[in-house]
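Structure first, sequence second, as always.
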C-alpha cells in the first residue's frame, strides 16, 4: 500500500510516534500501513510521512500523524466499535479508524472533500464507512447512539447534539476553543445524565464551522 521509496520514511515516522508516547500497537500498525500520500495533493506527497499537518485545499488540513495517532489511541482505550467522525476532510483519519472499528459514520460539510474521501475509501477497499454531507455540529442522529465520537476540528464549545448522540458509557474526543485562542483536546465520557471531562493538552485545529454546508 505504501510507495516503495517511502518505507524508510514510514519506519522513521512510526519510531517518532512511539518516542512521543503512542503505545497502542494496533494504532501504530494501521498508521504504518495506511498510505498517507494518497490523502493530499500530489505536490505535497513528498512530505506525507513527516509528522506535520499539511493543507488539502478549501482552507482545511490533514492532521499531523501524531494527532491522528493520539486521538485514535484515546478512542481505542474505550473499545469503541460504532464511531461518529465529525470532519471527514481528506479521509485519512477516517481510513485509520475504519481499520480499527466495526463501523465509521463520517460527516463533512465540504462536498468536494467528501467526494474525494469516498473515492479514497473505495481505492483502499474500506467498505465499513458511511459518509454524509452536512453540518458537523448536528452529528448524524439517525445512526446513533455512538460509543465513540471523534471531532477533527475545534468547536467553540461542545455541541449539545453530539453529547445527545453519545451512548451511555461512550467517549468523545474533541478539540475545544476559538481559532485564534488557546484550544484544548478534551476527552468526554457519558454516564447516564452525567458527563466527565478530561483535558489532555493544548492543540491547534481549524474551526468546526456551524451551519455553513458547501
Amino acid at each position: 500500500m505504501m510507495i516503495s521509496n517511502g518505507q524508510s520514511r514510514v519506519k522513521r515516522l512510526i519510531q517518532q510516534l512511539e518516542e512521543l508516547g503512542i503505545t497502542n500497537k494496533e494504532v501504530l500498525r494501521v498508521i504504518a500501513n495506511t498510505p498517507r500520500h494518497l490523502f493530499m495533493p500530489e505536490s505535497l506527497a513528498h512530505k506525507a510521512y513527516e509528522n506535520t499537518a499539511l493543507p488539502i485545499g478549501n482552507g482545511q488540513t490533514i492532521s499531523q500523524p501524531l494527532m491522528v495517532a493520539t486521538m485514535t489511541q484515546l478512542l481505542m482505550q474505550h473499545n469503541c466499535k460504532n464511531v461518529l467522525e465529525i470532519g471527514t476532510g481528506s479521509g485519512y483519519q477516517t481510513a485509520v479508524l475504519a481499520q480499527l472499528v466495526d463501523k465509521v459514520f463520517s460527516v463533512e460539510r465540504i462536498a468536494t472533500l467528501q467526494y474525494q474521501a469516498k473515492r479514497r475509501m473505495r481505492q483502499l477497499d474500506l467498505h465499513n464507512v458511511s459518509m454524509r454531507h452536512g453540518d458537523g455540529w448536528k452529528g448524524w442522529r439517525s445512526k446513533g447512539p455512538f460509543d465513540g465520537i471523534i471531532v477533527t476540528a475545534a468547536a467553540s464549545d461542545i455541541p449539545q447534539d453530539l453529547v445527545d448522540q453519545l451512548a451511555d458509557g461512550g467517549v468523545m474526543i474533541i478539540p475545544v476553543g476559538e481559532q485564534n485562542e488557546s484550544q484544548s483536546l478534551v476527552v468526554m465520557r457519558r454516564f447516564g445524565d452525567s458527563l466527565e471531562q478530561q483535558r489532555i493538552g493544548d492543540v491547534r485545529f481549524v474551526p468546526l464551522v456551524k451551519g455553513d454546508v458547501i
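Margin note: The first helix runs from residue 7 to 19.
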